[in-house]
What we know:
There is one protein chain. This protein is α+β, with helices and mostly antiparallel strands. It is built from twelve helices and six strands. The chain has a six-stranded mixed β-sheet, with helices on both faces. Helix 6 runs antiparallel to helix 7 (189-203) and helix 7 (189-203) packs across helix 8 (209-219).
Amino acid sequence: xxxxxxxxxxxxxxxxxxxxxxxxxxxxxxxxxxxxxxxxxxxxxxxxxxxxxxxxxxxxxxxxxxxxxxxxxxxxxxxxxxxxxxxxxxxxxxxxxxxxxxxxxxxxxxxxxxxxxxxxxxxxxxxxxxxxxxxxxxxxxxxxxxxxxxxxxxxxxxxxxxxxxxxxxxxxxxxxxxxxxxxxxxxxxxxxxxxxxxxxxxxxxxxxxxxxxxxxxxxxxxxxxxxxxxxxxxxxxxxxxxxxxxxxxxxxxxxxxxxxxxxxxxxxxxxxx
Length: 273
């Protein structure tokens, strides 16, 4: 293992050794493929925040290189998740990796580059990648350097106006698309997204979705507290509930509760404009 690699897995709040092993192996493989590009590899999002849940959460990585990767390197990285899962089928965490791999200069300047993107629905080689203000704040405040040198002093910390804009954008998405919901545990995620949006508008800070949901329940500002309590229960143990028919029935009927809570978020957006 490259000596530059930080012991990032040691700070992973999730107790699962399989998760730590998956992160360690993934970082080592990326480092080997990009050895001549001087990569800096970061872990951010739900894992450093202590809010990772297998079957719901992502393992968010950002890889920034000193020089643009070659086409051959991009091809080697493209299906790395699948290769590692095939080699270690007993370790389910490889499915959860998401993120972008590109040069530091292109990321900072928001320019076109050769980019490897891993997402929920697949992977691709594309030409642009950026983080929204929430992810960038998480990266700068709570992100863990897993490999290479720390270059976060080259990155810009989002301001309140950036966070506000992203909350507003998400609110508009909820109003448009979350009037009806399907039979999926992810339907409950809308409520936790709203809770975090309200917390950020009121405090200017980023916290995990689970903590935001618990904070909202304590403040009493959610008009549908039972729905939010259920969302938190499912969020904390998604594997337990994803095939529960009663939970799926409730997920499918979550639209009204989401819209009622979104109305509260809308009032906060007006008050904190």
